[in-house]
Amino acid sequence: MVFVGIIAALALTSVLFVLYPLWRRGTSEAVPIGDGQQELLMEQRKAAYDAMIELDFDHELGKLDESDYRSLYERYRRQAVAALKAAREREAVLSAQIDRQVQQARLAPGFAVGPVAYAAPTSAINARERFAYSIERRPKVWMSALSVLFVVFAAGTLWVWSQGSRASANAQPVGVIAGDAHAALLIDNATGAWALSGDATGIRRSTDAGATWTATPVLPGQAAALAQDAGGGRVYALVAGRLSTSADGGVTWTVGGTIPRNVRFASLTADPEQAGRLLALDQFGALFESSDAGASWERTGFRPAGPVGSLTVAVPQPLELFAAAPEVGVVSGAANRWASANGVVNGALPTDVVHAVVYDRSTGSTAQMPDGSTVEGTAYVATDLGVFRSTDYGQDWFLLGPEREMLTVAVGPPGSKLLLAVSSAGEVFRSTDRGITWTGS
Q1: Quick one: CA torsion of 127, 129, 133, 135, rounded to 10 degrees?
Q2: What structural domains and CATH numbers belong to the chain?
Q3: Tens digits of per-residue pLDDT, 297-338?
Q4: Among 4-13, 125-134, 340-349, which stretch is predicted with the lowest mean pLDDT?
Q5: What residues are paired with 312 via a beta bridge?
Q6: Which of 135, 155, 153, 134 is nearest to 145 (CA)?
Q7: Contact indicator for 422, 408 with CB cutoff of 8 Å
């Protein structure tokens, strides 16, 4: 991130030095460019999208009849389209303003194309004139130097990007897990010495960073979720609709805990700070909480999120969550409400087929939110296009790879930079630099 910041700073400086002479020589008053309208329009578009998602939730829960749902949905859709159209028209206006100002600068007196010859002051010229000459010439020297630096850094950036793309394309799995319907993945959050994977037949365990896997004696059936208490504590698993626990890192299991009557949990996660605190979403997206390691549960005030297959905690207090499902994409939850976290404009997630989401607060990444607040950490999602990450609560997503359908993703202990991901073919991929590269060694 620091390297990218340096590149951006040099690029901005170079652009300013190039545009400065045009601005200085211009004879007409400049039209203000970038008055915030573009950002406002995009915020309006996002608000309309969020409203459409909430309408979907209410409709699925039976709170809206079909006619009201269609009418409101179409209204918000038109608002989103209108905002997008206005934003594009605004962009065209801004481009025209820039072109007009550049043309005015070209026509201004004193504008010259090509190299300009400067006659160095002779010894007969007084000190003030020599100083004026040096000041007149200095911007061109600095401009040339900065341009060279920018080209060098830009070339370096392209090289790093190409190497990263090549690494993603050539990523080789470290191992293969038998079975299918891989739905859960967990790395020991204390040492990273073992990992667990859940599939249609139960849970498998690895002690060599995903290279080999062995079945564990857990209740047979679909393993839907895995979670662990903070500091390498108790492990929890949702298998065949029941809650199982392990006190030895998944070597042995005990069926325990209770699940509310007529409720079937679809996802499960643990508080990363408070041992014994669990959170789960049922098949309709209602959020339940347990403070006694699953012995009892209470439904929270969160509005149902709809069918969701993955859940993770971003901030324990006040509670902030991320959830994902193949037909929804990514949603963030806070203050008892859910909102889209699929990104906007160029940073949008290019797919809504999201199988899993996990959050790591130890990455050191920070981002400023539109409301002025600051968030920490990184969200990772496994999609049909690969693993993506976001460091700003789902406003912008970036592909990490491998570029194939990934069903699960897990993060290692805080500060370890370890990631594991499992593809739809059961291939296990490992990264030791938070997804920048994926290696088979």
Answers
A1: 70
A2: 2-169 (no CATH), 175-431 (2.130.10.10)
A3: 999 999 988 888 899 999 999 999 999 987 889 999 999 999
A4: 125-134
A5: 322
A6: 153
A7: yes
